[in-house]
Design brief:
This protein is α/β, with parallel strands linked by helices. Helices cover about 45% and strands about 15% of the residues. The chain is built from 10 helices and 9 strands. The chain is elongated, with a radius of gyration of 21 Å.
Length: about 220
Amino acid sequence: TGKALVARTLHERSLRRGEPFVVMSCGSLPEETLTSELIGHVAGAMPGSPRERIGRVQAASGGTLLLEEVSRLTASLQHRLLRLVRTGSYERVGSRTSQACTTRIMAASEVDLTEPVERGVFREDLYYGLNVVPIEIPPLRQRREDIEPLASFLLARIGARQGRALRFSPDALRVLLDHQWPGNVREMENVLDYSVSVCRGQTLLPEDLPVEIRNEA
């Protein structure tokens, strides 16, 4: 739905705009690796890693760290993040020395976090620690007025990578407006990536769109 774009925009319009904006996905790596990615480790603390490593929290010092897919954090990482949020300090893996955190934490979730909280798989205290200024971004199917400008923006960006200036035919745009976009902005980008690849001219036609999009229309 554009969560990372919203987070970056908030960062760039804040007093922290001159500092780093760092993104970390919480659902793509094993727990041990994610812990090191988040808070870092001292030399020799991680198998096969003889050198120390700073984490994303330190890399974003003074700026903003966006934690994507925060609902996928394990119980151990939830505990570490809770301490970071509560106390503003953390200890790198293998260290007993606390470090101050000057990073603003933003968290993004594809699911309503109240559901995993009710199931007992996401800490309630961490939920309230993160849910200070909630921003809900509706799915694209509920923002029909955003479809055309988003599609035009993405088409221009994808076309520029190939050195092409492209536009939509009215019929192709109508097909896009009729689609429900269950995969939101990421789905739209994938659809247009394909369409630009098969489009022969400068105008993207309905037949350039994936067949399942055309069939739905």
